[in-house]
Amino acid sequence: MKNTPKRKQRNKPGVVLFTAVAVMLMLSILLTATVSFVSVNRTKTNDNYKSKQAYLTASSTLESFINQIKTDTAPTNDPTAKAQQKKAIENLKKLASANSGKGTTTNVSYNGVDGKSDNIGTTKITVAQEGTSAKYIVVTCETTYLGKTEQVAAHISIRSDPKPADYTNTIELVGNGGAGYDNLNVIGDMAGINNTTGKVYRFTNNTSIYGSYLMYGSLEVSTQPLIMLKPSLVDEKQGSTVTISENLDVSNEFHINSTMARADGYNYVNIGQKLSTSNHMDVGSSGFDVDLFCCEANIGGNDYTQYGNFYVYKGAGAYNGDATFGANGQTINGSLYVEGDLNVTKSLKVTGSVYVTGTITGKDKIVCTASNIHEGAVLSKAGRDAKPQIPVSADAYVYYPEDFFMSNDTNVTTISDKYQAFYDGSNTKTFNTFASDWTNVDYTLTELIDLTGTGAKTPVTSRYKLRITSSCTWAKDLSFNDYGNGSRILVDVSDTSGDIVIRLQNGLSLDSSWSPTIVVRNRSTIIDATTGDRKYNCYFVSDSGSAITLNGIDSVTGKSKHSGSSTCNYSFSGLKIFDYDTYVRMYDADTLNNTKGNPGAPQSSFVLNPTSVDVAGSYRPSNSSIIFLFAQNTTLSATNNSFFQGSFYSPEAMVNIATSGLSGLNVTDSAGGKMTVQCCAVGVVIANSFGNANTAFYVYTKPSTTSVMQNAKGGKDDYAYGYELDRYDHY
C-alpha cells in the first residue's frame, strides 16, 4: 500500500435515500460483486501493470457499489418506505460500528462469463467508522493482484435530517395574537399558522391577496379587500384556496375571485365556523366558480353574489349547519346545500338546486325551479360536495434563529462559528474595516451577464462606494458623511468568503438622509445539483448576544427551546437591499454607474417573474440567498421607500415594513399578465407579528435550499434517511 494518499475528488451528489431494495443490495454486494472488465493482455508482468490492474479492480468494485445504490434508490414520501430507509441506515451503521468501530470486512469474488472466477485479483470490502461516530463511514476496497495492492475508499456521511422546510407563503404569521392590515397587498400566499383559538385578523382599505389564504382564527373584513385566487406560485398546476378556521364577518364589501376555472382540489372558501355578511360580498365570477363551505351562515345587508356552490354543513359544538338568507339582492349561480335548517327572509335566486336536510322557512322567496328544491334531503358530501379539511396545524417550526446562532450540530446550522466569532473577539471587523482598505472603496465591477435569457452575454459594469468580502458587523462606526446619501454597498459572496454573516449592531438607526443601497452578489461555484442554488449565502442577523442557551427539544411540542436572547431594535429609512443579478437587470447602465443616490424606479422594460415557470420577456430570480435571521425580542422598523429582496425568518420577532417601497416594478403571472406595483419586499416574511402601511406589495420568492432556513421546520417525526457521498480516495 502506498504511504502517500493521492486524493481523487469527485462531484458530491445530493442526499441518496435508501429503500428496501437498497438494504438487499447492500448485503448482496458485501457478499459478492460482479464487475466486467475490458480484456487485457495477462502476459504482462511488470509492476506498473500489476498496480493498474489492482486499482481498476478496486475502484470498479467500489464505484459499482455506490452507483448501483444511486441508480436503484430514490427519495420517497411513502411512510412505509421511510421506515425501510431508517432500517437500512441502522444496518449500515451496525456494520460500521462492529469491532469497536473497526467495522466489517468481507472478501469479494468475481465471476467470469463462464461462471468461473476471473484472475483479476482478490478484494476485501470494509465498512468502518471514520472517527468515533458511526455517522461518518468509510467504505474501503483493497485489491491485491500478483503481489501488488491498491486501496480506494468512499467517505460517507450518514443523514437523518428533519423534512426540509417548504416555504409557500409570501407572508406567514407565527404569533398567537390577531393583527390588522391596512392596504396590505400580497402576490403569493399568506397564512397565520398559530392554531390558537379566538384570534381576530382584520382587513381594511383595499387589502389584497393574489394567491391562497390560510389562517387560524377569525377574519373581519371592511373597505373593499380582495382575494384573487391565482395559480400557485409554488406549483403552477395547482390552484388556490381560502381557509379560515373560525368565523368570517364581512361588514363592507369583500371580493373573492379567481383567474382559474374551478377544479377538484382548489377554488374554494372553507370557513370552520360562521359566515356573516352585512354589506356586499361576491364570490367567483362567470366561468370561474368558487365554492364556499361554512358551518353556519347569516347573509344580510346588501348584496351577496356567488358563482359556485354554497355549502352549510354541521360543525363542532353549536354549529348545526343552519343558514339564513336575508340580504337585499342575493344570487347563487350554482347549488345550495344546507345540512340544518334554511330560513329565507328576502328573495334568493339559485340557478341550480337547493338541498336542505332540515326544514325550509320562506320557501316561496326562493327563485328556483320548484322541482329543484329538496326538503329533507340526504347530502352525499362526496366528490365536489365534500367539505375540505382544515388542517389541525401547519408545519411547526422546530429550530429558531437562536439554534442557527449557537448550535454545534452541523445538521442544524452552518453559521454558528461565524456568529459566535463576533462575541469571542475573533472577528472584530466592521463595515468601517473595509472602508479603511482603499481596494474596497469606489469599487468597480464588470461582468459578462446574459441579460436577455438567450445565452448571449454582454459586459455589465456596476460601481459601489464600498465592498464587503467577509463576515463583519454593520456597526455605528461607519460615517455616511464620507459617502453621501444612497451609498451603494456591495456584499461579495464567494468560495473564499463562504457564508457571509453580517451582524446588525443593536440600535442601528439610519434616517432618510442616508438611505444606503446594499447589493449582494453571490458567485460561490458549488451548486446544488437538484435546485441550482449556490452553496453559500448572505445572512443579516440580529445582535442577540452570546448568552443564548439552547435547552433541548421539548418532548411535547417537538420544538427547540431557548432563552437568553438580547433585545434588539433597528430603524431604517429608505434602506434598499437587492440581489445583484436582479439589480443589474432592473436598472440601466447610467444608474449602475453611480456609486450613490436613490436608484429610483426600475426600467420600464424590466419584468419580475415570481412564478415557477419561465415567462417570455421576464426575469425569474433564483431562490434567494439573502436571509434575515432575527431572534426573539427583535424589532425591525423600515420606512420611507425601503425595499428588501430576501427572506425573513423571524418567528419570535416583529417585522414592521411600513413603507411604500420601490415604485414602478412590473410583475408578471404565469400567463404573461402584467401589473405595475409599489413593492416592499421580494421573498418570504415569517414573523411573530407584522406591520405594514401604505399601498405596497410583497412578492413571493422562496429562500435558497442551501440556507439554514431549510432546517427550520417540518414534522418532528418526519425525517429523510440516507447518506451523502463526500469523496473518493485512492491511497
Task: Give the key terms.
disordered N terminus; globular; mainly beta; 8 helices; 26-stranded mixed sheet; 19-stranded parallel sheet; 731 residues
Task: Describe the protein.
Helices cover 11% and strands 39% of the residues. With 731 residues, it is mostly beta strands. The strands form 4 sheets. It has a 26-stranded mixed sheet that branches. A hairpin with a 5-residue loop joins strand 50 (662-668) and strand 51 (674-683). Helix 1 (20-31) runs antiparallel to helix 2 (47-72) and helix 1 (20-31) runs parallel beside helix 3 (79-97). The longest helix has 26 residues, at 47-72. Mean pLDDT is 86; it is low at 1-45.
Q: Outline the biggest β-sheet.
A: 26 strands, mixed
**Strand-pairing-aware structural class:** mainly beta
Helix coverage percent: 10-25%
Number of strands: 54
- Which segments are poorly predicted (pLDDT under 50) over 5 or more consecutive residues? 1-45
Enumerate how many helices there are, as a single number: 8
Taking the alpha carbons of the first and last residues, their distance comes to 7 Å
What is the approximate shape? globular
In angstroms, what is the radius of gyration?
31 Å
Whole-number average pLDDT? 86
How much strand content do the residues show? 35-45%
